[in-house]
Amino acid sequence: MVSIAVFDIDGVVADVRHRLHLLERRPKDWPGFFAAAADDPGLEEGIDRALAAAAEHELVWLTGRPNSLRAVTRSWLADRGLPVTELIMRSQRDSRPAPVLKVDELNKLRPRQVELFVDDDVRVIAAAEEAGFPAVLADWMASSPVLSEAQDQAGRT
Questions:
Q1: Directed axis angle between helix 98-108 and helix 145-152, to 10°?
Q2: Are 119 and 139 in contact (CB under 8 A)?
Q3: Rounded Cα gap, residues 11 and 49, in angstroms
Q4: What is the pLDDT of residues 113-157, one digit of tens each?
Q5: In degrees rounded to 5, what are phi and psi of residue 149?
Q6: Alpha-carbon Rg of the chain, whole angstroms?
């Protein structure tokens, strides 16, 4: 059985703080928020952990980013020396809260052995643990109520 490590992107390996101000305004500037994803700085601790996990397991990326950012995301990963492997993204019409979306996707991966799941959202981690997945909270980027709302209420990232 293939063992896998599953990593989120935003807040884990990508620092999204420079674009959060676009979600603080009314109406929220979702197109601008997503357009700025290519400019995210890397989070060194998350990158180091992802590379270490990739040395022992098959790496799978599980992000709430919309599928329209697939090319940008793959390029971003490659530019930072991260494996451009399986990339699971939110479909354009899926606005489920992040905990629901991600546990559903983790369950779809279950024919393989999920050895590690890393995410920056405490609600996602709690839901993953409740579903029986070994989960680690990425706490190396300061949490943001704006990002939490986007993930858990708006179902957009």
A1: 60
A2: no
A3: 13
A4: 999 999 999 999 999 999 999 999 999 998 777 777 776 666 566
A5: -65, -40
A6: 14
